[in-house]
Structures are given as structure tokens and as C-alpha cells.
Amino acid sequence: MSATTTPSALPAALADDLRGRYGDRFSVAAAVREHHGKDESYHAPHVPDAVFFATSVEDISDVVRRCAAARVPMVPFGAGSSLEGHVLAVRGGVALDLTRMTRVRRLSVEDMDVTVEAGLTHRQLNHHLRNSGLMFSVDPGADATLGGMAATRASGTMAVRYGTMRENVLGLTVVLADGRVIRTGGRARKSAAGYDLTRLFVGSEGTLGVIAELTLRLHPRPEASAVAVGQFQTIAGAVDTVIQVMQLALPVARIELLDAAQMTAINRHAGLSYAALPTLFLEFHGDSDAIVANQTAGVEAIAAEHGGQHFRFAVQPEERAKLWQARHDALYAALALRPGSRAWTTDVCVPISRLADCIVQTQEDNAAASVVSTMVGHVGDGNFHVIYLVDPGNAAELAEVTRLNQRMVARALDMGGTCTGEHGVGLGKMAFLEQEHGDAIDVMRAVKRALDPRDLMNPGKIFHL
User: What is the pLDDT of residues 351-404, one digit of tens each?
Assistant: First the structure.
């Protein structure tokens, strides 16, 4: 897919100044710029005029202040794993790469919190925590940076028990659009002091400032855990099992749905041998093996009422890791079903009581389509994803998927849901935001204008000013 170019937004004098100050940490090399002009989405790349590799909060503040003075757009960049075009430089400017900011600033085992730089990934953090008895729970699949995860309000497989980034970010250090540095929140587990600025920046997708450091909530590692895999004759049976499990408040740590097409894909990709049937992957955490066994037995009994069969259990860490790696590789497994395709990955989230209706109706639409698709979902919180495998040069395929996506989002909104449960808005969901939020969009615009009056922070995302 060829990149989309825009007229340079970077004055030569500013480029010379930044190159002189930061040397090779400020790059205009074509290969570096091209890498920072794309993500994992189907959107056409948009290449920045330059890339700055930050190593400190002070670095970011200085470069942001200089870019703001020259009215140069800025796009915060982490791992580039976003799925709705969040990091594309649609108006050129400077990509602010935070991947060299990977230090763990402070760890309190007693308080179960940690302060980290934004370029650290969630896997790197958990590796650092491996001997502490603690874990960071948010796992979106891709090894995303923690700053990017906060910016997109990431979720993942364990959100059903431990919450999303919204619940697990205690405080932030943010560089505003004029270069000022602010700190929001703190280490206390609750506060009634002033506006909740932390939650304002969590999910802001880089449009209000650059998240440079984060203070995060940690959780004890479970004493015992097990994974169960159950297969169903119908996707409705699988979803009805999920609904009943959630309504009975059974304490599952993860509950993931994969449709028959996705099971075919991961069997081929990961060398597994499951039947090509709708499948639930579940994980249970507890203080003892007996507690975990009791949880698994309860869920298995519910599944049997809805046609569940072929339950398999994995207790050993290596086997559990293999199963979850297969789930996390769902995108790449799906892509292998149609070599050379691009993934148009979309998601919605609905109230749990409407989940079966939404999934079944979406499946019916997709079954009648000419484009290959798979479905996966963090269904314990009503969130599911469809991966459409498209030829980005085929206008008819893109039009068909656009229609299917619009129908799915409209269906979710009619059911009291949202146009995106965890991918965020970026470029791809902008058209649906006003339909979902109505006049509240004007309040969002007012906040944006107050913090970024020149629209320099990741411009052209979420909504148009």
C-alpha cells in the first residue's frame, strides 16, 4: 500500500535546530519516517516529516515547545500496534517516538503500584515484576507500550476480572501541547480532589498531550490457575454460556470467544488440533488448586447446558502459555488465511444481555459476504472483534466491508452499546462518534481547544474541530 504524502509541515530552520540539539535522535531518513507512518490497520500510511526519539520528559517538553512555536503537528508514537490509524501523520509534522523511554522509575511491592516511563511495554514490565509476586494485568495481545495503552484506553483478555487501563492507571506525567509538564492523580487508591484529569488523558489518543510516565496499579499473582477450552455446536451456545457465567458472577480471569473460522486459522498457525467450532478459552485464578477446580467445574456444567463439549484443561504454565499465545496471535493467524491481504479489524461492545443477539446477527451478515472474516472477542465484558481480510486495492471489497462495519456499529448502538470497546476511534471510527455521543461531542471539542488551541497534537483524529 503506497503512503499518502502531505506538504511538509516542518520548517527547515526548526529541523536544523533539532538536528543540532539532538543529533541522530532527530531523523528525517526515509526508512525511519516510513516506519512511523503506519500501524497495524488497513488505513493508508501517512508519513511524518521527521521522527524524534525521546529519552526523557525534559526531551519531550523541549521538542514539543519548539514545535508548538513553529505550529508543527506532533504525533506520539509507541509500538505502532494500533488498529484505527491512531499514529498516522495525516498532517505531517514530527512523530514523537517514546520507545527509548523504558525505565521503571519506582516499584512499591507493599502498595502494589509502580511508576514507569511510557515506552516500556506491558511484557517488559511483567518480566521486571517476575520475582515480586505481583503482575500488571492489562494484556491487549500485541506487546504495546504502556503509554500507548493508556492513550487508547486499552483492554485485553484479563479485563473481565482486573479491569482496563482506565481502572489500572493511578496517575500520569503528561507534556501538554505548549510544552508544559503536568502530573495527574497520585498513588492514593482514591481521591476527591478536583477534576479527574487522569481519566481525561486515558483514552485521549494523543490528541491532548504526550503521556510520558505512568503510575500503575498492580495485582498479586494468583497462587493457582488453569485454562479450559470448550467447544460448541453453535456460536449462540457459546455466548449464552458467557452470559450465564457473568450473571452468576463466577470469578473467571479471562473468557475469550473464537468463531469456527478463527479456530481454523489458529490451528494452522499454532499447530493446534481443535475442531473448527465456536470455542471459548477460559482462565481461572484462585488461592488454591481446589478453588480453581471448583470454578472450572461450575463453568463446565453451565457450558453443558448450552451444548458445550470437548472441554480440555491446561494447568502447566507451558501449556497455558501456548494456548494464550495462539489467542494473541489471532490477527496474524487470520491473515494467513488469505496471503497478501490486509486486516480491517473492527470492534464493538454491547451490554452483556444483548451480546448473543449482536454476535449472531453480525455472523449472519458476514456469512453472506464475499470477503473472508473471522471473529474473536473479550466476551466477558460484551466486547468482540471482527477481522475482515481485504485487498486494499480492491474498491469493491473495501465498499463491502465499509457497509458491514457500518451495520455492525449501528446494531451495537441500537442495543445500547458503543462503536468501539477497546480499539479506540483514531481515523476509522470518527464517523460514528457523533451518532454515539450527540451534543457531548461539542464538550469534547471544547476540551481539545482549551488544551490544544492550535490543533497540533495528533490532529485529524477522534473528531474534526
Answer: 999 999 999 999 999 999 999 999 999 999 999 999 999 998 899 999 999 999
256: amino acid identity, one letter: E
Q: Mean pLDDT over residues 455-462, rounded? A: 97
9 pLDDT tier (thresholds 50, 70, 90): confident
pLDDT at site 5: 57
Residues in Cβ contact with 166 at an 8 Å cutoff, skipping those fewer than 6 apart: 153, 199, 202, 203
Pairwise CA distance, residues 419 & 435, whole Å: 9
Q: What architecture is the 223-426 domain classified under in CATH?
A: 3-Layer(aba) Sandwich (3.40)
Task: Give the amino acid at 410.
Answer: A
Q: Over 70: is that where the pLDDT of 22 sits?
A: yes
The single-letter DSSP state of residue 3 is P
429 vs 289: CA distance, rounded Å: 44
The segment(s) of the chain belonging to CATH 3.40.462.10 are 223-426
Q: Are 96 and 75 in contact (CB under 8 A)?
A: yes
Q: What is the mean pLDDT of the chain?
A: 94
Helix (H) or strand (E) holding 122: helix 122-128
- Which residues of the chain form CATH 3.30.43.10? 12-97
| Residue 30 CB partners (closer than 8 Å, separation 6+) | none
Order of all β-strands in the sheet with 373-378 = 308-314, 224-232, 279-286, 252-258, 373-378, 383-390, 342-349
The type of residue at 287 is D
Least confident of 167-176, 214-223, 302-311: 302-311
Domain 104-220 has CATH 3.90.1150.10: no
Helix or strand (DSSP H, E) at 245: helix 235-247
Residue intervals in the chain for CATH 3.30.465.10: 104-220
Which CATH number is 12-97's, of 3.50.50.60, 3.40.50.300, 3.40.50.2300, 3.30.43.10? 3.30.43.10
